Amino acid sequence: MCHVIVTCRSMLWTLLSIVVAFAELIAFMSADWLIGKAKPSSSEDVENRTGGSQEPYHPTLGIYGRCTRISHMQFSRRDTLCGPYAENFNEIASGFWQATAIFLAMGIMILCTVAFVSVFTMCVQSIMKKSIFNVCGLLQGIAGLFLILGLILYPAGWGCQKAISYCGPYASAYKLGDCSLGWAFYTAIGGTVLTFICAVLSAQAEIATSSDKVQEEIEEGKNLICLL
Known about the structure:
The chain is of the alpha+beta class. The protein is built from seven helices and nine strands, in the order E-H-E-H-E-E-E-H-E-E-H-H-E-H-H-E. The chain has a domain of about 160 residues: Butyryl-CoA Dehydrogenase, subunit A, domain 3 (Up-down Bundle), CATH 1.20.140.150. It has a five-stranded antiparallel sheet with strand order 5-4-3-2-8. A hairpin with a 2-residue loop joins strand 6 and strand 7. Helix 3 runs antiparallel to helix 4 and helix 4 runs antiparallel to helix 6. It is elongated. About 5% of the residues have low confidence. One of its GO terms (cellular component) is membrane.
């Protein structure tokens, strides 16, 4: 018989596992890893004549995507265009970024799998006498290691020609030049830290769902067990 067991620690682990997976996925897909040096608008002359703003814009560059501004001279209007600059894996700007993409993708795949499985741990806590929480926690630890490898390799690619075109001639491996780090990079770091926190919480979730209090509730014939 299936017993639905919900505790504060198991629910916290489940929610955090889902949040971490989505955060890492969104960061990976974003183009806001590097914020390029300010560039003047190509419609500056039109704006000067019309008294408009001459505020420069900052193009952004991701692992495989980028955002830049396209100006419409006739209307003095500017649109931001975002999309992949690489049509296939081999066109990613740096070999280090290719390795980063591989490690991050592997970590994210594991995190998404764990996030999916975590939803069902309310009904199924073990398979073949193995705790799902412990197995998921181990997988999250492995995913965290993949994420760390990807994030360490990523700055090594700042010396590629694509990054130099955004960050200036002083950009090189582990040196930003005229660029700054975007929110996607910080989100990936934060998600990596939370991944290891999830791995620790998984053990606490396993303890909470197998406690004596839960066993007492099961022996009383309850199918829905909610404990603080």
